[in-house]
Design goal:
single chain; mainly beta; seven-stranded mixed β-sheet; four-stranded antiparallel β-sheet; 11 strands
């Protein structure tokens, strides 16, 4: 059974940093594109970042570009989201998602592009 479990969320002051982890089981991470999305109260789910199965390409939303970094450790079957210079606007539930490279064309910023989702972890940034 495929499972994605996020961790690392919490409360941080503006300007601080957090590193989120997404531990995968039931799949071999090295064969999957991975993405991070977030959803704040009263807002639609939005794309944050993504990394291709081979780590050849990374993608970031304009709102986080230059502040966030996505990476993966295939040996640990884990994807990370390093978040620096956090702002109150970053407050949201962050979820990771996966889709195998065996699928057709992949558009990283589209929620419908992913087959598996984690439960999410809360990130709260205070001002």
């Amino acid at each position: 059974q495929v499972q994605l479990v996020e961790s690392g969320g919490g409360l941080v002051q503006a300007g601080g940093s957090l590193r989120l982890s997404c531990a995968a089981s039931g799949l071999t991470l090295s064969s999957y594109h991975m993405g991070w999305f977030r959803q704040a109260p009263g807002k639609e789910r939005e794309f944050v970042a993504a990394i291709s199965w081979s780590s050849s390409n990374t993608y970031f939303a304009d709102s986080v570009k230059g502040r966030f970094t996505i990476s993966r450790d295939n040996a640990k079957n884990t994807v990370y989201l390093q978040m620096n210079s956090l702002k109150p606007e970053d407050t949201a539930v962050y979820s990771c998602a996966a889709v195998g490279r065996y699928r057709g064309s992949w558009y990283p910023d589209g929620p419908t592009q992913y087959d598996y989702w984690g439960q999410g972890t809360q990130v709260t940034v205070s001002s």
